[in-house]
Amino acid sequence: MTQRTATPALPLGDDALILSHRLGEWAGNAPVLEEEVALANIALDLLGQARVLLSLAGDEDELAYLREERQFRNLQLVEQPNGDFAHTIARQLYFSTYQELLYAHLATGDGELAPLAAKAVKEVAYHRDHAEQWTLRLGDGTDESHTRMQRALDALWRFTGELFEPVEGLDTVPWPALYDRWTARITAILERATLSVPEGPQRGAWTAGGGRQGLHTEPFGRLLAEMQHLHRSHPGATW
Amino acid sequence: MTTARPSGTSTPSAAAASPADTGAGAAPHPADWPLWEVFVRSRRGLSHTHAGSLHAPDAEMALRNARDLYTRRSEGVSLWVVPSAQITASSPDEKDEFFEPAGDKPYRHPTFYEIPEGVHHL
């Protein structure tokens, strides 16, 4: 397997691939047809990004289907289960806000990721808008939707610290500044939605590392089993 | 998706027992979301054309759903959404008096004069 494991395209590609798979799990299960199409569109945008990024790192199919859990470099945030709709929206809000800020920065540079980032940042801006619209409506909706949205934001908060761990190969990214801008945006939207910014730690105290080091949470194994099963059972299968 | 609740006979417990209810409490069920008509302008210079309809809780979400449902293959450069309830439509019962009288008046069509030579795209 020819891989350039040092390229930052690998961790960013893994983020897009794994979140795309999670969003795809909503197909057939979303609360309404219109929202199902919206989530599937976002999933397909991310899959397109993943294909470009993983192709920069090696053979996209080998990387997606034949790596073991510890070889994936995605954030633990994106592998978290969909939960209820509020959990999916909270995950989308945290991640797409981060991804938009990161891609906007990469697009201004001249690295190998700049062309992809410049194109993808428009897609991601829409993903962030979608998450914000739902955050506003769920937060400022009924008692039930407010409670569920706050619960989801709190539950996923401990995975947000990892977003701003420097990624190897992305040396020009000002990570602390990115974190400040992310926090400001999240704070602003949660205030508008009458929700509270979670107060707990932004990383799990027990973790020796994170997804960027190949250390993943328990639900990730089952996600990989489903995603890789077909290719591993029928190598080289095509449509 | 269109599980209409019989008005006057449904009790709160009966409504809560709906299998599609995602636990939204007193919130309107998605089936109760209003219907919106979607109009897409395919490119500059053309009119907005009716593309279809969708459900959404409010106008902003209707616009976003319309973007995802009707322009994902580059069909448009502009979108309108209009509450379906705001559209006044002619009734099929009035078809005869509305439309039939125009049927036998071919002189209303601009087909009775020669097109001058050299005029294209008419």
From TrEMBL, chain A:
Q: Which residues form a coiled coil?
A: none
Transmembrane parts of this sequence = none
Q: Specify the protein name.
A: Phenylacetic acid degradation protein
Domain of life the protein comes from: Bacteria
Matches recorded under NCBIfam families: PA_CoA_Oxy3 (TIGR02158)
Q: Which InterPro entries match?
A: Aromatic_CoA_ox/epox (IPR052703), Ferritin-like (IPR012347), Ferritin-like_SF (IPR009078), PaaA_PaaC (IPR007814), PaaC (IPR011882)
Q: Which organism is it from?
A: Streptomyces albospinus
Automatic annotation (TrEMBL), chain B:
Q: Where is the composition biased (Low complexity)?
A: 1-28
Matching InterPro entries, A to Z?
PaaB, PaaB_sf
- Entries under Pfam families matching the protein: PaaB
Q: Which residues form a coiled coil?
A: none
* Gene3D superfamilies attached to this UniProt entry: Phenylacetic acid degradation B
Quick one: where's region Disordered?
1-30
Q: What is this protein called?
A: Phenylacetate-CoA oxygenase subunit PaaB
